[in-house]
Amino acid sequence: MMSLCNKCKKKNAVYHRRYSGELLCKSCFIYSIEKKTLQTISKYSMLSFGQRIAVGVSGGKDSLALLHVLKKVSKNNNNEIIAITVDEGIEGYRNESLSLVKNFCKEEEIQLRIFSYKDLFGSSMDEAILERPSDKFSSCSICGTFRRRALDLASISLNADVLATAHNLDDYLQTFMINLFSGDVDRIGWMYPRPIEYSSGLKKIKPFVELYESEIVFYAFHSGIEFQTDQCPYMNESIRSEFRSFFNDLEKTHPGIKYNCFNSMNKLSKLVKSVENNHNMKNTCLNCGETSSNDICSVCTTIQMLEINKKNF
Ligand code: SF4
Ligand code: ZN
Questions:
Q1: With a threshold of 0.85, does the pTM exceed it?
Q2: How far apart are CA 116 and CA 147, in angstroms?
Q3: Which residue, judged by its Cα, is nearest atom 7 of ligand 1?
């Protein structure tokens, strides 16, 4: 016999939250995700009344779910929402997600703006893969660098106060490990989820940072959100996939361990930040003038690397 939901005690449970032991029906599960997102927003002071929020939307489950939740919760806070989609220029992959995003925004009556790597940086991802020196720079490091800058430029051009992205707790743990294993310890100091205000005035927030990726998939599915399931053809080049499997395996045998790691990593982030206090992110790139911790920012370094390699063809 199916068990009853532990919360409402009326409907059949559809979800077993292993780390808390709860059994939840569909509506109580959906409510729990939206409530948790609101708690995260409030805990880290992510949003204020009347702010204009740009939401980075790829067409995957996380970003469409974030758009869905923010649309619901922003009504009471008088926030305006604009969806931003970045077209990386990956043949056969981005086309499907673009049409999913367009349909979703039309149905939810959300303004959508699309920006492409080709227009912003002179190379699509497919071109960048051919132009890069093969032994250096993984596809995801080029793409991640470009995406961060594309979202910043898009948000600023739309006069947004806040840029919201759908990074979840799993992404956070993976990024922490990547920074740790690549020697980028100072970056750990910038990971604490309280938003930092950049020199442009833009604040960046991650309202899903305390949610497991698996719960966001379940939320998107039960909220009737149609999302892209195809994987990017370049995905497997990333060490991120290996950390994802590592944490998922640990969580299977030790439910809740991801939350414990998240809390420890936040403490470490604060410690690193206090030690690295003289490391000032408000420096600007000597080439493009954008915020950077080095003399030349990572976007300019990547573009220069691609330009140099283009000439060597
Ligand atoms: Fe870009 Fe890597 Fe994501 Fe593909 S998997 S879209 S290359 S960051
Ligand atoms: Zn630069």
A1: yes
A2: 9
A3: 140
